[in-house]
Amino acid sequence: MTRLLRGIAYTVLPGELVLMVCLVAGTRPPAPVLVAAEVVVLLLLLTEAAAFVRLRREGRTSRECVEELVPRAVLRLIGHELRLMWSLVLWAARRRDGVGPDDQAFGHARDGAALLLGFTFVCVVETVGMSFLLADVPVVHEIVLVLDVYTVAFMLGLYAASAARPHVLSADTLRLRQAAHVDIRIPLESIATVSYELLFSHDKKEEGVLNLAVGAQTSLTLELSEPVTSVGLLGRERRVHTVRCHADDARALLAALTRARTAHMGRTDRTDRTPV
Fold it and tell me: Residue ranges per domain, the chain?
C-alpha cells in the first residue's frame, strides 16, 4: 500500500507542478483538466491521511508513520532545509548547536566564508535586478521574488550552519560536521592515528574515504581502526575508514584530540583493570 501511494505521488505531484507553471506563464489548460488534477491531489491527500491513521492504530509513533509514508530522501531534504533556517536563528543569536558545557568546539567556517558570502551578494544583486525587470508582470514578479529571497536565505543558511555547527570534541567522541548536511560521530577509541596534513585536491571516488573540505582544503587526516558509517544528504550510507576534515585552527584541534585520546585510553585501562 505504501509503495502504491508513493508511486501515485511521484506521478501526480510533478503533473501538478507542470500545471502551476502553465498558469504562471499565462497558458490556461482546459477546465476539465484543472478540475481532474485538483480532485486527484485531494484524493491522494485523503488516502495518505487514512494510511497515517491506520498506521497509528497499529501502534506506531507519528514519526514512524511519516517515515513509512514519505520517502527517506524527501524527509532528509526537508530536514536539511529546516536545519539551515534554524542555523540562521542560532547564528543571529550567537549560539552554537550541540556544544555541551564540558565540550570543546572548533570552528570551520572561516575559510569558506568569502565564497559563500560572495555568492549571497550575487543573489541579492540578482533579486534587485529581477524585481526591476519584472515590475510590469505582477504574478511572475511575486513568484520570482519569493524564490530569490529564499535563495538568499539559503545561501546565508549555508554559512550560518557552518558557523553555528562547529566540530565538537567531548570526553569520548569527536563529532565532525559540514554545514547542515554532514554530522558524523567518531568514538575516540576508533581513531588509530590523527595527523596534520594540508590537502587541496581530493579524489571523490576514493573508496572508504570521507573528505569534509572547507574552501577546497582539508587539514587533518584521521585513520580509523574501526570504520564508521557516514550518511549522505539523501540518506545514502557508506562505511569509511579514513576521514579528512578542516578546522580554523587545525593544530589546536590536533593537540586537543591527542590529549583527549590519551586521557580516554587512561580511563579505559583503569576500567579494564578494576577487579570484578
Answer: 2-70, 80-164, 171-272
